[in-house]
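Notes to self after the call with IL:
- keep both proteins in one doc
- input above output, always
- annotate only the second one for now

Protein 1:
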Amino acid sequence: MMAKNQVAKKSELNQVKKYLMSESIQSRLSSMLDSRASYFTNSIINLVSSNQRLLACTPESIMKSAMTGASLNLSIDPNLGESAIIPYGDNASWQIMYKGLVQLALRTGKYLKINTIEVYKNQFTSFNRLTEELVADFTIDGEGEVVGYIGYFKLVDGFEKTVFWSRAKTEKHANRYSQAYKRDKKLKKKDSMWTTDFDAMAKKTVLKLMLDKWGVKSIDIQKAVKLDHSNGDEVDPKYPDNPKNEFDDFEEVDNPFEDNDDLKDTPFEKNE
């Protein structure tokens, strides 16, 4: 059985390699990336070969997602944490990560400081949403549970913004807007990035929504926000993990009639 699976994996990987090394794709990569085309091709192959679920995705969707990252000059290497290619069934989607957002913001030349971090129980005292005053001690190492996530930026003109989300609010956001996370919880799996790296996804979410609402947005930042979690199609983007592409405002009003566990009519219903 193991040998059969290895043969299937090798066959799927060869299909991806064949697609990437085709004359038309290499010509397109060379025109876009010049001398970086070879490195880019190898980075896709390495990524796919290390992820069994990505091997099940179509080469076309993998390529389109990877090109989204390349068009923003963001790496898809998981070790760098700038952007990621995520499998959803047989289609891949592109996802911006918090380090990628920081990179795009700094490139504008408008941000003096920008960061997002976890806030631990022993560090946190209070946060005033009206004055945006955070009372916390970040001179000590975080210990115990993570109680929330904070995003902060300061522009060169002096404007500052601080946003704090509690762990509970972040969990509610993930449960409401990520179909993959809801599926993981229901089926007790660990496929979604919200499941495997909740803190990284939480920091990315706080920073993304903060920049989208209050930040100075370059064309690249606008593109990254628009195509986050999408198939990479700028004209008609599809969002497999959040089909309506909805997301929280910071002044969210609870819906007492919402059923967070309902998977009906989601992309995952047919897979169960």
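Protein 2 (the one to annotate):
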Amino acid sequence: MAERKEKSQGGKRRTIPDFEEEKHGRNRKQLSKREVQKLHPHEKSRYLAYEEPSKEAQHGINASRKRIAEIKKEMKRLYTPLSSQERAEAQRHEHLIGQLKAAEARNRARLLRLRYEKSRAEEVNHLVSCQPTAIKAMRLQTLLPSYPKRIKARDMLGKDERMRVETLLADQIGLETERILK
């Protein structure tokens, strides 16, 4: 246990533990091992909490503190702050990785949709081929197409109409839509 000596006001020397060491309280009563064994488990744990740890426990505590100090040094060495140029490069890299992951997700969704449409088309074609008559097959084929028609959604508003809609939506007070009737 690392200790240092210091003079008090009365001229007597006393020992003060270093700040790195934990301060342990002392038990006022010194009990023998037999008396400690006789204590209730709750009292025993309370008593032993203020006793000096055994040599094995103290060795384990010191070893763990040493490992923690080594890990802290290693972490400090590995995680030095990045310069602004390195930080900007890291952000660009993360942005690029994000874009790649998004593209992969879109591709997986597209492939899943295509696989579903293909299996649906095969099922519909099978149903059409299993119809007993040609008329029933033609009727089923017209009512239930193999591939659904793509609906292209396009903007139906012109440039002026679009601006008018945007001004109406942006109007929070209602100046554009409120009318005073006389």
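Annotation: Residues 84-129 form the longest helix (46 residues). Residues 84-147 form one domain.
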